[in-house]
Amino acid sequence: MSQEKKYISYAESGVNIDANDQMVDRISSSVKSTFGPRVMDLKNGFAGLFSLDSDSKLFKKNYDHPVLVACTDGVGTKILIAQQMKKFDTVGIDLVAMSVNDMLVQGADPLFFLDYLAVNKLDPENVAVMVESIAEGCRQANCSLIGGETAEMPDIYGQDEFDMAGFAVGVVEKDRIITGEKVRQGDIIIGLGSNGVHSNGFSLARTICFKQQKLNVTDKIDSLNGRAIGDALLDPTKIYVRPVVKLLEDFADTRPVHGMAHITGGGLVGNIPRVLPSDCDASIDKNAWQVPPIFDYLAQAGPVEESEMFRVFNMGIGFTLIVDPAHADAVMQNLSESGENVYRIGEIVGGSGKVILK
Amino acid sequence: MSQEKKYISYAESGVNIDANDQMVDRISSSVKSTFGPRVMDLKNGFAGLFSLDSDSKLFKKNYDHPVLVACTDGVGTKILIAQQMKKFDTVGIDLVAMSVNDMLVQGADPLFFLDYLAVNKLDPENVAVMVESIAEGCRQANCSLIGGETAEMPDIYGQDEFDMAGFAVGVVEKDRIITGEKVRQGDIIIGLGSNGVHSNGFSLARTICFKQQKLNVTDKIDSLNGRAIGDALLDPTKIYVRPVVKLLEDFADTRPVHGMAHITGGGLVGNIPRVLPSDCDASIDKNAWQVPPIFDYLAQAGPVEESEMFRVFNMGIGFTLIVDPAHADAVMQNLSESGENVYRIGEIVGGSGKVILK
Question: Which of A47, A114, A293, B332 has a beta carbon 3.0–4.6 Å from B72's, enabling a disulfide?
Fold first, then answer.
């Protein structure tokens, strides 16, 4: 056979190496904007390196028994709204928020974050915008984006489809881990305002808006000040790290915070019980704060019963703290001075580990 | 209007909470099988907790300046072979391998792992098998599976489709980080045998097998001892943690290991340069080991030129160590005693930071 063989190459199998190199260049400054002095920047390294430096001046606090705290999460089908709106500059904030707000519950300071981004086709521009939004989340959470993976998989993700997963690591001194075991009758429940739907309940929200109401993402809604429904749903998840870390530092001596909860899927009724002792209930006054208009819209457009709304959505409260009543006012003032919308939403009463909405 | 409103609920929007609870029960024992004494098992916790315990007896080594090392990766389109074979008991090993072998390169001991698993439909049986394979990877890597997220997203993942991302954290003493900066002329390059294609080059492998050759995943291949092509491609990535960590401990005084590389996408020619000084080349004798039959099959079936094969696949060497020549024999013997297939595959010569295949 004198016929010349036709060889096949990696590039012909659909992997775009140039686009990858271009993307790496573009995201580099976003990533570096999150680096603190404890990130060790290893050229061509196989891993992200972060110095725990327990006896260095770089480390503001000294840890006798450092406990590492790790979380992972995605942003669920909020991804699909971003995809339909072709708006990629906020979902990265959601991605960081979901993990760092979770670790905050245990009293941990976020240290670093890594992302996994899977796409149909590696569009350097879109990926750069997404990574910059992740970097923005990291800056808000005061943590460093020390690693990530972007995978181009056209045979798994359809045209324009993508998914993202985030991983966060933080640290807490062993005897300062907050577990809820100190929660007791008479403690005050403080709620911090949310920024809308955050990243949970999107299966229901999408069913209501796009199946029931047959809206397009760009349709404007009167009761939402004429905003497009897609924009309202995309409002990024609030990151509670800076105010809560500051609070824990400012009250390091009296330690009035007995338990916290990040209000995700399950709402207040599903998440607060995770830190309740078995002989306590959380009595919550649902008139203590104004439910944001997006939830009123979803409840009416469904329609969805109020009890179901509270089981699925945060209803305007994205994070809760259960505190010693003697310090409740001071805690509320501290959080308020950090710029949070702070509500006294209820108290701990005798019971069996559940939430009572009043 | 006296007509009764028809309310919509979360369950009707397609989220299966029962399947989730059932899955959590099923994976619990797999997850706990990976726990060492440093995992703090927090009931209903919002995060995974891992005690660094720098001055406790639980911690075998003491760290003066602990540096955390973090990696994230997926398994690429190897996922699709598992999906087509409906074989989910090995891809979790790949997932762990991709991250822990990367961190090993910097000299780190893996501590813990978290997984993100996204599926079309939450089948508790399949998810349990996948998570058990992740737990098996963690046991092989001597690390604890302290967290994970399973997301059911039918509007992103088509029927039977799924994706997974992994995240590993380890620790290394600051002055023992291996960077390659000590690599010098005369150093010996040691290769550790791979277990097949591992988790890279699948876009090319799938193009060859399923587009060019039009094979089904179950078609048996004579030159692979009659194994199904899907089975051969699914052989899990070798995890090099235990032999390499033991080597670094056994040679803690002389520190003969100057650089390492995990051979992933890019092959030997793409990965070894990541730890080469700019004035050194790695001269590799490609006859120093037997290329496994799967690579011969792919090269012939493509056909793919040999140089391209070496740029895409590991070709039988999954991990390399660059070591001081005075200790090369002892290092090889140590790794061999740990059960590895060990090859002296080349040496460091003067050059410009590239690999020369001879």
Answer: A114
